[in-house]
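Support request, please re-run this one:
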Amino acid sequence: MKKHIKNMVSNRCINQVAGILVDMGIPFQSIELGEVQFEQQLSMIQELDFQFKLKQVGLDLIGDPKMLLSERIKLVIIQMIHYSDEHIKTNFSVYLSEKTNLNYTYLSNVFRTENNMTIQQFIIIHKIERIKELLLYGELNLSEISYKMHYSSIAHLSNQFKKITGLSPTEYRHLDVIHRIPLEDIGKTGITPLKQHKSA
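Re-run finished. Output below.
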């Protein structure tokens, strides 16, 4: 039996869910981003208890089909931006349609209704967080980061980065205090500009 879980988008979430199930003594076959495969059907009491414990760590079971589709869209985006080195040759709208086998207009409408933001906004804030990570690693120069993150130019990346964070990529690299958003919180509260964190 498979259960889908909202906001389960990082390895930390996977570990939290595994810990909850171990503590509850509920056997499971596998846990992946966004879902758990159980060995057997949960009783109503087990499911309610599981849902209660998930909510305590910011997660939730998904029952509604449109919410499930919204989470699927999020996972495709997160996998692409944070966990894949694949360089897609189409734009994200085509990529999402291919991955879900659904029309992008429908995907866009469902996502906006469920999340109060557009797919494009969700993609941008995740790209910015990934760029922050790559800047801090220091292994790639800005040109390489721009290519990796599917920007048309360094200028495009820099302009978008500054619009969201209030800082240029170079300024961000030299911050005294690093401002990052945990993966599972990106898109929940938006992005706080970083101007107040800028070094003197």
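The beta strands are 2-6, 28-32, 35-38, 60-61. The chain has three domains: 2-61, 65-120, 122-197.
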